[in-house]
């Protein structure tokens, strides 16, 4: 292969390596939030949160009924609010 071909292959290979590192590896001095949290939710949990939030239940009670960490449910609630699936409350997120 020509020298020009080698440089192009090296450039493409380096680009691919940088993309893999960017998407799959964390920076040495970086911080990944909530690593210890389970942020995967079953469809029934999402539906239950939506319904009970609209009914006025507290996030704490919703989390207890689903046997989930209230912080995990708060993340789900924020996600649902950003998508317009639940409405914000005047009192904000109430953990009581």
Unreliable spans = none
Structural class: mainly alpha
Distance between the termini: 69 Å
Radius of gyration: 22 Å
Instruction: Work out the strand percent.
Output: under 5%
Number of helices: 4
The percentage helix is 55-70%
Shape: elongated
Overall pLDDT: 84
DSSP summary, beta strand count: 0
How would you spell out the order of helices and strands? HHHH
Largest sheet: none
Which terms would index this structure?
96 residues, mainly alpha, 0% strand, elongated
Secondary-structure blueprint:
Layout (H helix, E strand, L loop, with lengths): L2 H22 L18 H12 L4 H8 L3 H13 L14
Helix pairs in contact: 3-4
Summarize the structure.
The protein has 96 residues and is mainly α.
């Amino acid at each position: 292969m020509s020298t020009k071909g080698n440089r192009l292959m090296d450039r493409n290979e380096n680009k691919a390596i940088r993309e893999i590192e960017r998407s799959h590896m964390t920076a040495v001095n970086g911080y990944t939030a909530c690593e210890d949290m389970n942020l995967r939710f079953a469809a029934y949990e999402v539906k239950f949160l939506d319904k009970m939030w609209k009914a006025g239940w507290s996030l704490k009670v919703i989390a207890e009924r689903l046997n989930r960490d209230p912080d995990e449910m708060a993340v789900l609630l924020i996600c649902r609010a950003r998508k317009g699936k639940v409405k914000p409350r005047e009192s904000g997120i109430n953990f009581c």
